[in-house]
Amino acid sequence: xxxxxxxxxxxxxxxxxxxxxxxxxxxxxxxxxxxxxxxxxxxxxxxxxxxxxxxxxxxxxxxxxxxxxxxxxxxxxxxxxxxxxxxxxxxxxxxxxxxxxxxxxxxxxxxxxxxxxxxxxxxxxxxxxxxxxxxxxxxxxxxxxxxxxxxxxxxxxxxxxxxxxxxxxxxxxxxxxxxxxxx
Length: 183
Description:
- Helix content is 53%, strand content 13%.
- The chain has helices spanning 16-27, 37-40, 42-54, 64-77, 86-94, 97-117, 135-148, 162-171; strands at residues 2-5, 33-36, 125-129, 153-159, 177-180.
C-alpha cells in the first residue's frame, strides 16, 4: 500500500495523518510506503513562487499554497481557461502563461518519472487525502496511476460524510473506495 501526500502541504513537516495511518497499518502487518509529493515537487513550486514574488514587491500576496493550487487546477484542466478563480486571475497577471505552462509541464514530468521509476503504479492500493486543497494534484496522480495500471485500487479519505464520498466517486470515476470519519 502506498499513501500519498500532495501539495499544498508543508515541505518540512511530514503529514501526521498518513504517518499515523502508516504506523497503524504496519502494526497490523500491512506494509506501507508514504510518498510526500509536497517534498518531491517543492523546488519547482518554490521556483515559481520566487518568480511571482519578484512582481509583488515582497507583499506576500503570493503563497506557496496559492501556487500549488494554481498548478493543481492547471494539471486538471491542461491550462484551459475553464476555471478562473481570483487566485488564478491574480497569478496570471504576474506570471506569463509560458512560465505557468513550463512549470505545469515540469510538474507532470516529475510526477510521471517518479511514478514509473519507483513503480508506484504497481501498488495494489494507493491512498490519498481529499482534505484542504490537495485534491487537484492528488487527482492528477490518481489519473496517471490508473492510466498505467487500471487494476490498482484507489482509496480516498479525508471526506466529511457518506454523501460527499459518493459524490467524489461519481465525479472522479478512477476512485474505487471512499472512507470518512464517523461519529
